[in-house]
Amino acid sequence: MSINVDATTAPYYAVRTTGIFCRATCPSRRPRRENVELFEAPEDAVRAGYRPCKRCRPMDHAASDRSVKAMIDACRLLSSRDPVQTRDVAEAVGLSESYFQRAFKKLLGVTPQQYRRRVLAERGREGIASARSVTESVYEAGYASSSRFYEGVGRELGMKPAVAQAGGAGARVQYAMTTCSLGHILIAWTVRGVCEVGFADSAAALLPQLRRHYPNATLEASEQTEWARAVIDAVDTGSAVDTTDIPIDIRGTAFQERVWRVLRAIPAGQTRTYAEVAEALEKPRAARAVARACATNPLAVLVPCHRVVRKDGRPSGYRWGLDRKRDLLRRETAKR
């Protein structure tokens, strides 16, 4: 089912599968509803790690702001397939290197080279499936060498580029489903670590969710591992999960991954507001973007987005149901 973006109240939307954001009036093909993230301002989309659409140019309204325009130009230069140095980009947009570094990170939440690595990895991911060989996609994406390509794309995809070239076919995702005090739970993992933990009211609803996230991977039912049982125990008792011994394999935008790291540092029995998480990221105006990052978290409990609450302390917005969020918080508070 495709979403009618024109009918939404948000003036901008982003497509998770492409990493691009557009105006609501963009003439491009309408994305599927489950792949859409809505934004009130283009800067919010940029902070969340999305790139502006080349057709509708959603950032052009801010061109009067010299600093923002410089960052837009910098993003275009950093997206070049040719090798690019930060100092050269700073000079090209008319800023000193030190000021450029600070301004870029303030707006986008990542350094210029982190942004470039993300762009190259995304381009590599898109190119592998259509390239005649992995080697061809190395240079089409803009990587200087195959080693950089394998490092960058491998980190973003969680699988080898040769596997990604087949659209993820052949990648192995194991999973276990069982019941717990919050209903039915699914825990899935790759060779790199846990990639999904989710709840549902029925077992039948769990596997389709996993298939949507890994449409071309080989899904295999498996026995529960020791750390899977630790997650279930944490759900049932409210005890903290020692994540140091549990490898995880999740990927998101640069901003989402920063948010998820902050969430993992919140102790069990404590909460933070969305604004407090934004402050911890040195992005005090990014509370809405923090909320969206929480909403896209694929690892219930392991990345404890349930510990983020409204300014007044009340729970809100949990992708697995508000009642489950309340129960998790109540159990963790009782354990303190």
Structural overview:
Residues 1-9 and 125-168 have low confidence and may be disordered. The protein is globular. The strands form 3 sheets. The chain has a 4-stranded mixed beta sheet with strand order 3-1-2-4. Strands 7-6-5-8 form a 4-stranded mixed beta sheet. It has helices at residues 42-47, 66-78, 86-92, 97-108, 112-128, 134-141, 146-157, 161-164, 206-213, 226-237, 254-264, 274-280, 287-295, 322-335, and strands spanning 12-15, 20-23, 36-39, 51-52, 172-180, 183-189, 194-200, 218-221, 272-273, 308-309. A hairpin with a 4-residue loop joins strand 6 and strand 7 (194-200). It has a domain at 171-336: Orthogonal Bundle (Arc Repressor Mutant, subunit A). With 336 residues, it is of the alpha/beta class.
Write the layout of secondary structure elements.
Elements: E1 12-15, E2 20-23, E3 36-39, H1 42-47, E4 51-52, H2 66-78, H3 86-92, H4 97-108, H5 112-128, H6 134-141, H7 146-157, H8 161-164, E5 172-180, E6 183-189, E7 194-200, H9 206-213, E8 218-221, H10 226-237, H11 254-264, E9 272-273, H12 274-280, H13 287-295, E10 308-309, H14 322-335
Parallel strand pairs: 2-4, 5-8, 9-10
Antiparallel strand pairs: 1-2, 1-3, 5-6, 6-7
Helix pairs in contact: 5-6, 5-7, 11-13, 12-13
